[in-house]
């Protein structure tokens, strides 16, 4: 390929918004020569590589704006430490059929069992599949919506919780809510109903949500919409954090001995 043609292609690629093609053109040409590719095979190679680069860029951008606390995957989850948890149920969720159906997923259990890890892993998988995601705690939702309501910007702020295809709501039940606060949460749940997926984690059983939301009727209304299309996974095993803390204490004791 002549230098003139290479320069012209690079300029055209830049105008088309294909910076990677402009950078990797020589590499593509060498691969085509080595494999003795035909014209159509070469075009297929270039388009496939550009699509992969664009998907990876979108994925990394999606993760950056998602507010996820980390980017752990299910491969990082130690299912052997939770023998009562059926890995197949979690891996079924990882197919993202519930996201496609705009349904929900709930992960219940005591602190430290890995609920947030699984929720994040599902969100990462959804992001890689092209879905927009956003992570928040229930307390942050309430605090932000109360602030927005006081400033006359409630509708705008609600939009930030309604736009993502997948909204991850962490730590439902750690702090009881007042009725006005619970009503703000109800608005999020009801407006997302059958329009987008929610992945939530909670240390409370659903029968305890009346106490969490300060009103049995309102809690029932929230659960009615949330659970209509929802996969529920309960994790009732030991705490990872406690295990790691105890291991650290034992190491310190052995070092001091």
TrEMBL record:
Ranges where the AAA+ ATPase domain occurs: 101-234
Domain of life of the source: Bacteria
Pfam family, one: IstB_IS21
Keywords noted in UniProt: ATP-binding, Nucleotide-binding
Keyword Nucleotide-binding: yes
InterPro entries: AAA+_ATPase, DNAC/IstB-like, IstB, IstB_ATP-bd, P-loop_NTPase
UniProt key word Isomerase: no
SMART domains the record matches: AAA (SM00382)
Record family assignment: Belongs to the IS21/IS1162 putative ATP-binding protein family.
Name assigned to this protein: IS21-like element helper ATPase IstB
Organism per entry: Streptomyces mutomycini
């Amino acid at each position: 390929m002549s230098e003139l043609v290479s320069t012209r292609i690079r300029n055209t690629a830049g105008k088309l918004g294909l910076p990677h093609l402009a950078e990797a053109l020589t590499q593509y040409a060498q691969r085509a020569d080595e494999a003795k590719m035909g014209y159509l095979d070469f075009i297929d190679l270039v388009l496939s590589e550009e699509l992969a680069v664009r998907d990876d860029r979108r994925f990394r951008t999606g993760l950056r704006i998602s507010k996820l606390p980390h980017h752990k995957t299910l491969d990082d989850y130690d299912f052997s430490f939770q023998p009562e948890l059926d890995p197949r149920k979690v891996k079924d969720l990882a197919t993202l059929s519930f996201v496609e159906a705009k349904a929900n997923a709930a992960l219940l259990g005591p602190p430290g069992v890995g609920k947030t890890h699984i929720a994040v892993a599902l969100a990462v998988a959804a992001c890689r599949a092209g879905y927009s995601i956003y992570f928040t705690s229930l307390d942050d939702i309430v605090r932000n919506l109360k602030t927005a309501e006081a400033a006359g910007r409630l509708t705008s702020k609600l939009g930030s919780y309604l736009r993502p295809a997948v909204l991850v709501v962490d730590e439902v039940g750690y702090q009881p809510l007042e009725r006005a606060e619970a009503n703000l949460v109800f608005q999020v749940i009801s407006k997302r109903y059958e329009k987008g997926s929610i992945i939530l984690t909670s240390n409370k059983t659903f029968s305890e949500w009346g106490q969490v939301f300060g009103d049995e009727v309102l809690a029932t209304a929230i659960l009615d919409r949330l659970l209509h299309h929802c996969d529920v996974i309960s994790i009732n095993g030991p705490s990872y954090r406690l295990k790691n803390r105890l291991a650290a204490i034992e190491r310190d004791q052995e070092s001091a001995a």
